[in-house]
Amino acid sequence: MEFLATRLRVKFSMFKRLLFIRGAELLVLTLLAAMPVLVNSTYALGLLTLLAIYAILLIGLDVSVGYLGQVNLGHAAFLALGAYAAGLGVSLLELNLLSALTGSLLVGLIVGALLAIPALRLEGPQFALATLSFSALTVITLNELEAWTSGAQGLSINRPHLFGWSLDASAFYWLCLILLAAVWLIMRNLLTSNWGRAFEALRDSPIASDAMGIGVYHYKIAAFAIGAALGSLAGGLYAFNFLYLQPQSFTYELMVILLLGVVLGGRKSLWGALLGATLIVLLPNLLSNRLVFQIVSATGLLFSIVTINRHDARNKPFQTFSPIAAMALLLAGSVLAQNIEDWRKAIFALLLFAVVLGLPDGLIGFITRFLSQLFRIAPPVLATPSPLDDVLKTKLAHGETLLEIRNLKCYFGGIKAVDDISFNIHNGHIHGLIGPNGSGKSTAINVISGLYRPTAGTLLLHGKALPHGSLYQVARTGIARTFQNLQLFGELSALENVMLALKDTYRCPLPLLLLGFGRADERRAQADAQALLALVGLTDYARTTAKNIPYGAQRFLEIARALARKPDLLILDEPAAGLAQPDVQRLIAIIKQIHQRGITIILIEHHMDVVSELCDLVTVLDGGKIIAQGTPEEVKRNPQVIEAYLGAAVDTH
Known about the structure:
Blueprint: H1 2-38, H2 42-67, H3 75-93, H4 97-119, H5 124-144, H6 146-149, E1 155-156, H7 169-191, H8 194-204, H9 206-211, H10 216-242, E2 244-245, H11 252-265, H12 270-288, H13 290-306, H14 310-315, H15 317-336, H16 344-358, H17 362-375, H18 388-391, E3 401-412, E4 415-426, E5 430-434, H19 441-449, E6 456-461, E7 464-465, H20 471-475, E8 479-481, H21 494-501, H22 510-514, H23 519-535, H24 551-563, E9 569-573, H25 581-596, E10 600-604, H26 608-614, E11 617-622, E12 625-630, H27 632-637, H28 639-646
Parallel strand pairs: 5-10, 5-11, 8-9, 9-10
Antiparallel strand pairs: 1-2, 3-4, 3-6, 6-7, 11-12
Helix pairs in contact: 1-7, 2-7, 2-10, 2-11, 2-12, 3-4, 3-5, 3-10, 4-10, 8-10, 8-21, 11-12, 11-16, 11-17, 13-15, 15-16, 21-23, 21-24, 23-24
């Protein structure tokens, strides 16, 4: 009976969560669809149409800003390109409505991919400047191509027919709403899949992403191109909504407003994009009505004061009190300024500043937490862990050579970090690689794993040459690694960190994934990841974001994530660094379990007790050269090794 009651509680919790989330989507969609019938106002209908268009636009912008973590200042340019592509397609090529919108989407996809190829090699301010330059260049080009675009005079267009039907304002609004619903479903399926996790991982640690076989550059280009395509699709709808285009409508000011919408609504959230679009649509009305603006400013100030966290106020005073100061300035400006609209740029800047510091998750983050607590919405039930033998099959270890290293060299200018070393790693063994600080052991494994390119030498895995200088390509050959300095995906949960790295689990083709057929892969991946978390003793941390779990657990999580690659060779780079003694003993037990499954391990470690207990063979480096090789006991008695560690020759007489 108790088991049945537990099952019923779980089922009820799942149903309540499904009803709350999917029911909210259906309710909002139904309410928006009924608006033309409920509200008999041309002006209100225009705002609702613009809301649907901007929601599509912000969903696209959120891919680069929210998921990739890049400040994209070029999204307004894709809105312009899509708008002019649709307008010129109708004016010059006499395309129908769907063909013109498809053309807009393709223009954004192609131009976005082409821009991403050079721009995404840049990071931070450099990327922002590159996209800002693209945006300015787009406006200038549209101005100069007067023969096609009519330049500053503006381009007038006609709304084409849809399957022979002429669309009035209500019908066009419903078309925009249908496209928004389609974009919502497709992007929800994409961003809740391993693609979405990959996009987030690129922001947290590009190095670890490549080491997990994700392919940083490819995913970045794909993410940026998808966002650009949605921006251009919104541009096509924008053109057929206003029926008149001017290049000056797509300037930097619009870009700031769009960024404000994403940040204020909430990053990494479809609901945040919808809420942000609503705020953008209402901004002109907000600034034109002094009383409304004063009420909003006062409410924001009051909210900033009420939500002060005492702990944050002591430890992060700037982040705590800056939003209060910004909202106080807005309230003072609403009272003192003669014409509020003259200060629109300053208002946008203050709002953006206040939200970034005060609500890093945006309004939707605050609302979600509040409603989850109010209605006691439990997180989704996790899948039952798969049998470990199904996830990490035991390999037969015959002791043959797995990795052959011949005359390996890695020089940095005049520094010979690795200088002509040769040794073999045998299948099924734990091979220790030790040496004093600066001996070259980290450089050696960075060359093996593809982080560094060798100056000279040969690396053979299973008798085949390893790729040089590419973590991504080496990872796909069957080598996985951890890092001396932790490289976890901090914003993802422990479970998601492992799910992201799983090899041979995601089989659903992308087109079917976008249509919602990837759920079976997700459940299987979740079950497999649960098994690996159980192996390292982190089941209780499955839902916890990686940055919030204890340091020792983070070390173990990195091992579980590396095991998700189902490697032939596992490289552990100082896994015991910084661990307390109980965690060191736990680490030894975990490595023994991994070894029992026939996985070959290279262990770089300073703890000699760990090396002695685990390693079959040990190679000792000093000054980039091999000074000793043998069993742990043989190495510990070697005079050269003792001299390297103690700094003095040992008298053996």
